[in-house]
Design a protein that fits this description.
Among the domains are: about 180 residues, EreA-like (biosynthetic domain) (EreA/ChaN-like  fold, 3-Layer(aba) Sandwich); about 100 residues, no CATH class. About 40% of the residues lie in helices and about 15% in strands. It has 16 helices and eleven strands. The strands form two sheets. Strands 1, 2, 3, 4, 5, 6, 7, 8 and 11 form a nine-stranded mixed sheet that branches. β6 and β7 form a beta hairpin. The protein is globular and about 65 Å long. InterPro entries: Emycin_Estase, Hydrolase/PRTase-associated, UCP036794_erythomycin.
Amino acid sequence: MKTFLPTHPLRSAADLDAVLSAIGDARIVLLGEASHGTHEYYTWRAALSKRLIQEKGFNFIAVEGDWPDCFDVNCAIKQDQKAYGSAAKLLQTFSRWPTWMWGNWEIAALVDWLHAHNQPRPMTERIGFYGLDVYSLWDSLQEILQFVNKQGDGAVAAAQQAFRCFEPYGDDPQEYAQAVAFVSDDCEDEVTHMLQTLRRQLRNTTASTGLERETAFAAEQNALVAVNAERYYRAMIKGGPASWNVRDGHMMETLTRLLDLHGPDSKAIIWEHNTHIGDARFTDMARDNTINIGQLAREQYGRDQVFAVGFGSYQGSVIAGKRWGAPFEVMPVPNAIRGSWEELLHKQLQGENALLLSTELKGTVAMKQTFGHRAIGVVYRPQFEQFGNYVPSLMAERYDAFLFIDQTQALHPLPTKADEHTPPDMYPWTE
């Protein structure tokens, strides 16, 4: 096997030509990140996303974020006027820890670009911004109540019943999960009934404009979040891969719904952490029967319709917390460990950045040999990273392309105060 890997220089957005060509006519492009707080991952994803939108007609960006918060951004960037004031003010909607993931200056710049790009276009052709995640149980219930009360329809009673079921737990998913873990008295029936009732009601309602159609879609999506979040929190307390699989299954279901909403020729850009978008079948996740959206998308739409781009770096700094729910801080990212994917690229490239395409890696170690690939979560302890931050991966199968940035720096968070409720701490640091 060849140790030397063919690469393309990566210095400016023009150097993305090779990956644009490799993407071809793919319908879904998944863009990863090897941390949740690195400046370069956000800016390179934005650069590639802009080119996909401008040159290949992609319709929306969907991210590892909560549906209600992201839908606020979606509505704002589709307005004719910049009614949201500043992007920094708009992104204060991301007040659940970790606030910096979407509340940062890098995303603020993208929000302004999306709004400017959308302005001269008809509403049906404006680029959307959506959340794929499942954490927003209480926010989604509030959104449903507001929607059905405005509509005055038959779903009001079902929504109120579901909301009352969760009220005793005080907006705390951890308390709900612990309370129902080993008893049958949960809220599964209530949220399922709410979703079914809302869907029946919406089938009998004809939206007169694209905006009304999207608003109705958002209401149904919030009900779906409630159903899957309830499943997620029940599974979480029991451990194992079940809750992770519920979460990524929800993300895939949401992606499918968004593609259907935008029509048969629609195209999606996904921003998620590498452990979500890199096909789990080619990592050690497969041993535990853990799936992810990268695997599910390939299985559902076919590998030729799905293109996954991973990211990584050799050293630098990152935004993270020392423990779950802790204030964010700038942390050092040490040199990648010996024998890792990142160390191999650093040695070959001698400090340069590069783009790799999996189609060009046949006959090399990337196709046959498993490498540890660094993944930094929202909780990070640099001094211990060799014990849990490297995911064994067959790199040329896990991804279709890889962006390597040798030296990276920390993301630039907005000064948003986190609310008191955080999702339960259930993942290893690499999540």
